[in-house]
Amino acid sequence: MIKNILFILIALIAMPSIAQQRKVDRADKKYSNLAFMDAQKLYLKIVENGNETQEILQKLADTYYFNDDLQESNVWYSKLFEKYSDSIEPEYYFRHAQSLKSVSKYDEANALLDQLGSIEGAGGLAEIYKSQPDYARIIDMQSGRFTIENAREINSFTADMGPSYYGNKVVFATARDTGSFIKRVHDWNEQAFLQLYVANANLDGTLFDLERFNSNLNSDWHESTATFTVDGDAVYFTRNNSQDGKLLEDEDGFTKLKIYRSIKTEDGWSNPESVSINDDAYNTAHPALSPDGTKLFFVSDREGSVGYDVDEEFTRSDIWVADVAADGSLSNPRNLTSINTHGRETFPFVSKNNVLYFASTGHSGLGGLDVFSSKIYEDGSMGTVVNVGRPINTSFDDFGFIIDTDTNLGYFTSNRSGGMGGDDIYRFTRIEEKTPCEVLLEGIVTEERSGKPLSDVTVTVVDRNNNQVDTAVTDAQGAYQLKVNCDMQYFIRASKDNYTRTEQLFNTPAESKTMTMSLSLIDPSIPVLECDDLAEILDIEQIYFDFDKSFIRNDAAEELAKIQAFLELYPQTKIDIRSHTDSRADDAYNMALSERRAQSTRSWLIDKGIDASRITAKGYGESQLVNNCSNGVACTAAQHQLNRRSEFIVTGLDNYADCD
């Protein structure tokens, strides 16, 4: 009886723990199957019951993050960092930074990205931010080039997204109830599966006569992001991997996205067929044809992606491209490595003037997905990636950007606040640029000899006609920032009282970006002490000679040019050249050789215009070796080379001999 009572008590005590673990297991299963809405409910219940382990907080935050609800993910990522700051994986620094941007906490986001850059194993997650820490200023420079409005005439109270051009019409995907008797719902976000709809477009971009696109292309599952050939006779679009009305799963139980192609015939659109670049193991989606139809850009998380990691639960997608042959066949795809990051790149579109627009979380942006552009050159190379700025981009997800460059009208998708149903389609007009393409010019001004930053230096940029373009004064750290136009040639000048002035010619890039130019001034008042070695003062390499030679080598001439410049700047200075050999050969011979080398160095400077009375020279042979490679000691050629050198000792009028 006592044993039975104890067993019952133990069972009763254990039941809450067992029940809790079952909830965790059930939530994990939903999470691993990407059914994030169900997993979210279970994790919320688990947290409500007081279980806030690191793993549960991570996954709960991820259910919001991967459903593009960055504001809510920020709540849980913040709690994760509060409780487990010492054991968080690098990936979560990146995700939390994106969530912080979504609530306009850019300073905190940047601080996290700074930390990410110093974490071992962070890989390329922080590379973009580290290469462009002033991204916010650059985005401001790009902003204000569009006017936008919600395309309320076609948006619904559910997801509407991924617009594309079909002649004078616009095709897009929507999750609105199609009126079927059985409404199919996707576990990921509990919305109906996406279907393709089409609308006519007015000259001002407003849309009307909305209807389902085509029953042969729409199935019971997801269809989205269509792209059409110029003649409108072929379409590529995204669909769940399915066959005969049934979803197909991979070995892990997931249904991948694939690209399908359909041909327009007299009888309508043909049965869609899977294209050759699809892979059952990976997602292949969001196709976009180049204007001439010879390239198909698309999105995939396949192996070879910049964001691919075999150990990651979620592989971030990249943009790929394949050549399209005349018969419609596709080449092996190539990764656009120059624009892809360790974040997520998606929703490509190529304008008539061959600019690739795409969305990314990896490039520096305002939060969530931002829209970026990159010029496609004739050789296939890509130009600088540029954030298109506000108001297209916000701290929410902004993507699916398309534009007709003939009219400067276009559309994009956003889940920003004030919309009708989560993801909405917005209409925009690109206005004339208020200012030319601009380059942010920045740098540090230092004192050349000491390397210390100089404050209160006036830095000015002038054009080739000597017209002042911009000017700034350096701060306490010697830093300056100026704005100049793209694709121009300028002079930059730096000046400060009692310092020598400097000026440089430079060219700006053709696209908006940051350009760094460091400048240095010389303080003539800094004393050069008697017996100083100019090699140390000027931080120059030693003047080396080849074995058994006394002529000036090319690398030696480059260093002697620094000595020459110093003597020209400081005409009161005199120097004593001291030449040394290694221990090989006879002592007397080495003494004579070093004397020839010293005189050869002196002659070189005199030939460059330095007064002979300011230069003395003497050979010391092997009497002052810098290592132990003396007579009879086995040394390498490199060790002997160290002893074949010249020194440049600053002297007074007659007392240089006192310098040891």
Characterise the protein shown here.
The protein has 660 residues and is of the alpha+beta class. The strands form 10 sheets. Strands 8, 9, 12, 13 and 14 form a 5-stranded antiparallel sheet that branches. It has a 4-stranded antiparallel sheet with strand order 1-25-24-23, with no helix packed on it. Strands 2-3-6-7 form a 4-stranded antiparallel sheet, with no helix packed on it. A hairpin with a 2-residue loop joins strand 12 and strand 13. It starts with a helix and ends in a 9-residue tail after the last strand.
From the structure above, extract its key features:
660 residues, 12 helices, 4-stranded antiparallel sheet, disordered N terminus, 5-stranded antiparallel sheet
Total of DSSP H or I helical runs spanning 4+ residues: 12
- Rg, Cα atoms, Å: 34 Å
Helix residue percentage: 10-25%
Terminal-residue CA separation: 101 Å
Instruction: Give the biggest beta sheet.
Output: 5 strands, antiparallel
Secondary-structure-derived class: alpha+beta
Measured by DSSP, the beta-strand proportion falls in 25-35%
Strand elements, count? 36
Query: What are the low-pLDDT stretches, counting only 5+ consecutive residues below 50?
Result: 1-20, 29-34, 178-190, 653-657
Q: Which descriptor suits the 3D outline?
A: elongated
Query: How much is the average pLDDT?
Result: 81
